[in-house]
User: Fold these one by one.
Assistant:
Number 1:
Amino acid sequence: HYPLRRQRQMCIRDRFARIASKIGLKEGDDLGALEDARWFGRELDDSDAAELSQMLRAQPLPSLKYLKLFGNKLSSEGISSLAAAIPSLSGLERFDLDNNTSDDVDIHDATRMGVQRSGNHIGDSGAEALTAALMATPVPSLKALNMAGNGIGDRGAAALCALLRSSSISEMNLIRNTFSAATALELAKTAVQSGRAVIFCSGLSGLNADATVASLVSSDLSDPDGVLLAGTLHMRGAMPNITELRLHDNLLGDSTASALADVIASGVLPSLLTLTLNCNCIGDEGFAAFANLMRPGSALSRLESLGLRQNLLSDHSMAALANCLGDGAMPALQQLLLGNNALTADGIIQLAATLKEGKSLTALRVLELQKNNIGDAGAEALAQAIAGGALPQLRELYLFHNALTMAGEIAVKSTGAPQLTRVVASLPKMFDDDE
């Protein structure tokens, strides 16, 4: 029967010559044995998807394991057409439709082939169509579905929640879409309820459990992305090697901070020493979630460095911090970076009073408060607390760009604390500091 099968495949190739040429099928290719369809970055549009769907239905590919269509020009219409071909892909294990990539090998292949990767945008309707097809004709072998950066909103994500409940998918890459943080949280909860460790952010580097540093710096992560990241960390279980989590220079907000706090409280990152969240959009609600873990003996008691520079913190955050700093709180913290927020004298006065009364932050060496608006009153309250024995290991204090007058600067520089070797209360006007 082999000659007959080859003849049939040749007839199918001739019938669909245009799309076969566009996806790179060659004369000698055995379609029935194809396992890895690398049809990425080929500028496939919705009309191409319709023709490809017809070809797949005419020639089922039961051996196909990996269907890679990322970096094309597919919209909801194209995905709806491809969804009709799902029954012909009974052995499919991975389906990549992302607007990015999660496979370094594919990046190199795309570069070598000289293809211009554009972007899919399947949206809510595409997500719903694909979900409906996979629920109507389940593909038990399918474990990975990659739809990052596809403009999927709350409606499409709700459909994908239903797919998570009814399938055995263990990887559903959904970062850089448009659904809300609340919907991201619902996705994570659905995955947890399914009893599977679902990965929602497989396209990100820096999450190797064997590494000591998890770095996702400048990764264009939104608040919903951060929630999915936290959910993924939670489901992966304990990562005892990770000592540093770097998430600065993104767009993470309160929902991410709260979700990360839950992850830390659950013991997933038992060895965490450094948490860097500088240059994000975290406000008082998110900071309060971290502050609750700063109580004596709580989950962040081993932390050595906390970076929240250039976020959206106000005096409410300082009130939350003051409320949690009892005797013995944060005994290992050496750096607290709170510069470039919206702190005023009221918040610093409340924090200073707590520091003066209790023995907390006793290992702190660097305190950044620059580029706030604490004024002379805030600076003087902090100086008095330090002079009274608070922060006994403090070496560096940064207060520039805080509307201090000469009186405030003098108060800070004359605390009488011999260990305080670097106080920056003002900068020359010609010096433009980005910190």
Number 2:
Amino acid sequence: MITAESLFLRFWERPGPRLTPSVLATEITAELLFDENLGFDDFRITKDVYPTVAKLLRRSSDSVSRSVERMTARLWRCGSPEQLRKITGQERLLPRPARETILYLAYYLRAERPISALRYGTDVPRTGISA
């Protein structure tokens, strides 16, 4: 099983900025989706994830939000296109908002396949996960 940190490290030779808020956000999202059966449509990153990450890091939710948004933007701008294609299942890479990026990463973290497999019927979702 891969870890959220190793997943982020796949995108860069040297990651640069601190990954902790994004790594924790990805892990918590994966837990909510797979362990607590929260559906994609019910998932609210600002309500369900950022406050938990903020509490763990003793930071404000706004600070965590900005950090995750910067990291996910950097991932789309500077990350490995090969890894982005592998994780998103998209040939044409278009930058996505932080919420979607974290969902892509969280799904890949647990299922070890792109979330697009749900849309194309090549994957059977676990309970509570809907396309």
